[in-house]
Amino acid sequence: MTRNMNKKILTLLLLFLSNLAHADHVIVSGGCSLNRWEHYRVEQDRHDKWWANFIRGGTMRMDEIRKAYGPSVPIVWIVYRPAYEMRGREDGKNYISLIDQQAAKRGATLVWVNTGSGLISALNARPRGSVKTFDYFGHSNKLCFCIDYSTEILAVSTQWLHERDLGKIRSSIFASNAYCKSWGCHTGESMSAVWKSKLGIPLEGARGKTDYRALASGQYPEVSGGWVR
User: Cβ(155)–Cβ(168) under 8 Å?
Assistant: First the structure.
C-alpha cells in the first residue's frame, strides 16, 4: 500500500471519528400562544392553555435520547425566546429561567433564537455531518414551522421556517442516516417532501392535526391522520 493511500485512509478515519465526536441531537421548541389572544376563540379552538407544551415535548425527547444514546451525547436545544418572555409577563412567571433550568438539568446546550432566520443560522452552526436526530415541537401547517403563532397577533405567525427556505439550511450538517421528525400539525402533507428534496433526508410529519394533551399522561403528541415520511 502506498504512502499516499495510507494518508487518504488516515484522513477518512479522522473525519469519521470527528463526526462521531460531534454527533448532535437537535431539538427545536417553537413559541407558545398568549392567553389574551386565545380568549377570543371559542373554547374548543384555543391553543396552549399550558404554556409549556413545546418545552415539555422537548424535555421528554431529551430524556429519551439520554436513555437511547447515553448520558454524555451532545443535545442542542433551540428555543424561540420572545414567546416565553411575553407569556411569562402575562402569567407573572419567569419562564426563561425555568427553561434554562430544564436545559441545565439535562446537560443540553440551550440556544435562544428570536427569528426564523435565527433558527436557520443556529442550524447552520452545527458541524458537518453532526446532526444525528432532529425534532421540532411547535405550531405548524403543511408549508412551514410556525415558531411564533398567536403571540404577537391572534392566529398569525410572524416568524417561521417555510418550506421555500429549506434550501438555506446546509444539508451537510446532517448525518447520512439522520432521523428527523416534526411533532407539529400537517407537516407530512407538504413540507416533509420538500425537506427530503432540499436536504436529502426524510422528515417524518403529521397528516392532520397533532394533539399535545397526551403530554399530561407522559405520552408524545397524538396525530389525527397518521405519520408519514
Answer: no
Q: For residues 189-201, b (16+ Cβ closer than 10 Å) or e, as one string?
A: bebbbbbeebbeb
CA dist., res. 49 & res. 33, Å (int): 8
CA distances for 218 relative to 57, 118, 206, 215, 223, angstroms:
9, 31, 19, 5, 15
**Residues 49-90: pLDDT tens digits?**
899 999 999 999 999 999 999 999 999 999 999 999 999 999
Helix (H) or strand (E) holding 204: none
Give the position of cell 413545546: 54
Collapse the DSSP code of 106 into the 3-class scheme (helix H, G, I; strand E, B; otherwise coil) and give the result.
coil
Domain spanning 21-228: CATH 3.40.50: yes
What residues of the chain score a pLDDT lower than 50? 9-21
Contacts of 73 (CB under 8 A, 6+ apart): 23, 25, 65, 66
The residue ranges of every structural domain in the chain are: 21-228
* Of 184, 170, 167, 193, the residue nearest 221 (C-alpha): 184
Mean residue pLDDT of the chain comes to 90
Angle at the Cα of 171 from the Cα atoms of 124 and 22, rounded to 5 degrees: 60
Task: Judge whether 144 and 160 are in contact, CB under 8 Å.
Answer: yes
For residue 222, which phi and psi values (nearest 5 degrees)?
A: -95, 155
Angle (CA) 155-160-165 rounded to 5° is 140
Q: Of all helices (H) and strands (E), which one includes residue 57? A: helix 53-69
Altogether, the residues listed in the chain come to a count of 229
